[in-house]
Amino acid sequence: GSRLRRQLESGGFAAGEYVKQLSQQSDGDRDLQEHRQRIQALSEETAQSLKRNVYQNYRQFIETAREISYLESEMYQLSHILTEQKGIMEAVTQALLLQADRDDPALGARRAAAADPFLPLSAKEAAANEEGRQRTLTTLLEKVEGCRDLLPESPGKYLVYNGDLVEYDADHMAQIQRVHAFLMNDCLLVATALPNRRGAYRYDALYPLDGLAVVNVKDNPPMKDMFKLLMFPESRIFQAENAKIKKEWLEVLEETKRNRALSEKRRLEQEALPRPAPTPPESTNPFDEDEDEEEEDEPSAEEEVVDLSLEWIQELPEDLDVCIAQRDFEGAVDLLDKLNEYLADKPVSQPVKELRAKVDERVRQLTDVLVFELSPDRSLRGGPRATRRAVSQLIRLGQSTKACELFLKNRAAAVQTAIRQLRIEGATLLYIHKLCHVFFTSLLETAREFETDFAGNNGCYSAFVVWARSSMRMFVDAFSKQVFDSKESLSTAAECVKVAKEHCKQLSEIGLDLTFIIHALLVKDIKGALQSYKDIIIEATKHRNSEEMWRKMNLMTPEALGKLREEMRSCGVGNFDQYTGDDCWVNLSYTVVAFTKQTMAFLEEALKLYFPELHMVLLESLVEIILVAVQHVDYSLRCEQDPEKKAFIRQNASFLYETVLPVVEKRFEEGVGKPAKQLQDLRNASRLMRVNPESTTSVV
């Protein structure tokens, strides 16, 4: 085979020459047929190999595309970090220039005049300009519905730039809607145009400039003049009217962000400066000195001033941004814990409130990143432990409920993905072994990881139990679809259920027993399988009864007789030898023997499936099956006129009543753990019939 493969795969292979040579060397048609079969087998093997390679490459392509998506997200974050670093450097430059202007006012005035020839000449003109810009902002915002409550007026807010844009879908680059953007000195407002109302808009979104990043989108005709706004974790793409307006948007957005960062830094510097203590008025009364000495002994009634000028506090918001961008979640939470510990016994002053507001914004960003880490959209590889990092940090942030919910959603998606990736091939029992191994191993690992992550949160355990029940339902759906919907035999179904129960018992290692849940979810399908198989047995028994000739069985060979003895012994019939005769004859009817084997096989398989909820279904099915045979024997005894055949029928009836029914009753009691009154009543009714065989009353 390998020699033939090398010959066919060689670069200089000529099909015509190969066939000609093969025809000359072959001994006849049979040799050519064999060679053709070898080539056909090699072709099929090659096709299968190609299919496997294509599937493997396709999976690698999907994984690569997913990793590229994650890399793109990280590149956006990196671009945002670089933009922030650029803004910081420019802010530092501005601060140095400002310090130089303070040292030399004349130099500062000359630099300002050179940089901006239209600089206002007086404070009065500056105030008028500021008032005009605020009046323009108010006029424009009156045209935007729904923004009054979300955008309160403040003395320092003014309009910087505005214009029409077209929004596009980031994935498919399809046009979504036309919008109008209002850039203010501290935020960006996006509004959608109202139909049939020129110049009127409806509020769509509001983004603070602190958390906004601007990225240029390279032109790719016909998609051009676009730029992207990043507001973690989302992003939006807009198209300007032309390249000039796009350039203006990019420049004015960056400039406004820099000015915002600079003004914020100046404000913090002013707040950090120590406030001069008020000087008391000079006293002209000589007795005031004694009063002052008495007042010095009294405690100060002024509020305690919280020192926020510490370097690590000043840099805390920026440090949190860096930690979030670098995915240093532990470092970010450590900084938050340090701040909370420092402010624990401090009064809540206005500067503390403002600092808290900035920090809370970072906490929301950190929470969003951690939530994204636990989302099912992220890679599910690595098992439950891969989520431990994000879960532990969410718990430290005081969001254990959200962490629990996201962790369980992540694991549910992982389990569902693992089940879907199972290939349905070969025997059903082999697939069920794989399915149970994948599901219950994942469930066990999830339970152990849950116990580790949420050890101090007892309130979350009820959520895990609810999740386990939901996951079990998903497992049973896949199980039933393969075992019961495909109409497998009862023996195969019994083996599959047995495998599932054995795997379910593994959960007892962690104190979790879900056996009752799997019973409750499977009871409907098992009932249907028992009733379906019962109908098959009854139909087969009736068919054999219709062809009954009441003749002895001749097995022809001792081997066949020995095999039948072994089969009856495995059914629990220990006295079968008394019904065998000479020369491989059996003094029983084929119908009665076949019924015995089929009924005992049904009982054995049904007992493998048994649990208390199935008791009555199994018992009623057994009684219904046995009644078909009993009624047939009863009817034959009453109708047969030939004395010899009648004696043979009585012998079969004796075997059925005195051997088969007690064996069924005993095996049922052993398997279930308690006797069955219905089977006892059936046997008593048959005893009455044997006492009075001429009775016309049939067994019902």
The CATH superfamily label of the largest domain reads Exo84p, N-terminal helical domain
* C-alpha geometry: elongated
The share of residues in helices is 55-70%
Q: What is the CA-based Rg, rounded?
A: 44 Å
Q: What oligomeric state is this?
A: single chain
Class by alpha and beta content: alpha+beta
CATH architecture of the largest domain: Up-down Bundle
In DSSP terms (H or I, runs of 4 or more residues), the helix count works out at 22
Number of strands: 10
Biggest β-sheet description: 8 strands, mixed
Strand content: 5-15%
Low-confidence parts, pLDDT < 50 over ≥5 residues? 112-126, 279-302, 693-700
CATH topology of the largest domain: Methane Monooxygenase Hydroxylase, Chain G, domain 1
| Mean pLDDT figure | 79
What strand order characterises the main sheet? Answer: 1-5-4-3-2-8-7-6
Structure notes:
The chain is an alpha+beta fold and 700 residues long. It folds into four domains: 79 residues; 128 residues, Pleckstrin-homology domain (PH domain)/Phosphotyrosine-binding domain (PTB) (PH-domain like, Roll); 212 residues, Exo84p, N-terminal helical domain (Methane Monooxygenase Hydroxylase, Chain G, domain 1, Up-down Bundle), CATH 1.20.58; 160 residues, no CATH class. 64% of the residues lie in helices and 8% in strands. It has 22 helices and ten strands. It has an eight-stranded mixed β-sheet. It has a two-stranded antiparallel ribbon with strand order 9-10. Helix 15 packs parallel to helix 17. 21% of the residues are buried. The C terminus is likely disordered. InterPro entries: Cullin_repeat-like_dom_sf, Exo84, Exo84_C, Exo84_C_1, Exo84_C_2, PH-like_dom_sf, PH_domain.
